């Protein structure tokens, strides 16, 4: 399981926003892609390439419209 949480507050005029977020709350290792690469018929030349998602990340953002 991978859970993300984002809270957004907007003022009454709609010209200011504040965001707070936590991504991957569980800090789980999430595999985003796996590829078996074999350039020929010889299985000893094969390799597996895997990409993993980011660890638990948090932050804040502020947006102002002029």
Helical amount: under 10%
N-to-C SSE series? EEEEE
Got a strand count?
5
Compute the average pLDDT.
91
**Main sheet record:** 3 strands, antiparallel
- Please give the order of strands in the largest beta sheet: 1-2-5
**Amino-to-carboxy terminus distance:** 40 Å
Q: What layout of secondary structure does this protein have?
A:
Layout: E1 5-10, E2 16-23, E3 31-37, E4 47-52, E5 57-64
Antiparallel strand pairs: 1-2, 2-5, 3-4
What does this structure look like?
It is built from no helices and five strands. The mean pLDDT is 91. It is elongated. The protein is mainly β and 66 residues long.
Gist?
With 66 residues, the chain is an all-beta fold. The chain has strands at residues 5-10, 16-23, 31-37, 47-52, 57-64.
Main attributes of the structure:
66 residues, mainly beta, three-stranded antiparallel β-sheet, two-stranded antiparallel ribbon, 5 strands
